[in-house]
Design brief:
With 128 residues, the protein is of the alpha+beta class. The chain has one domain (32-121). Helix content is 46%, strand content 27%. Strands 1-2-3 form a three-stranded antiparallel beta sheet. α1 (10-48) runs antiparallel to α2 (58-71).
Length: 128
Amino acid sequence: MNRKHSGMTMIGFLITLAVIILFIYCGMKIIPMYSEFYSVKQALAGMASEPELGNASKDKIRTLFNRRMDMSYALTVLKMDPLKIESTDTGYMLTVEYERRESLIANLDIVGKFHAEQALVRGAGVSN
């Protein structure tokens, strides 16, 4: 009587489980970095929709950006203060550029480089 064995061995199962756990662990490190960057992009887009910010001072713009980062719990970005404000002919160009490094395993790190730009135009925004 010949019987075929099918299925995974215990070692094969443990290796597969280790690979799955590694991917989940990497995801737990990467997802917060991108959700924080999404908060930065939302803050910049929200600021662009406010018509009075095109004529506001750079200090007021920076304060408003910092408040939005505080509200969205983007504390890592808030500590870095990566906002650059450049004057243009039509208003301001807001640029947020930063690098975030998270420890992965021992001396291995995950590095994310993020860049977002938004123009603040004088007199632009949502009209009622």
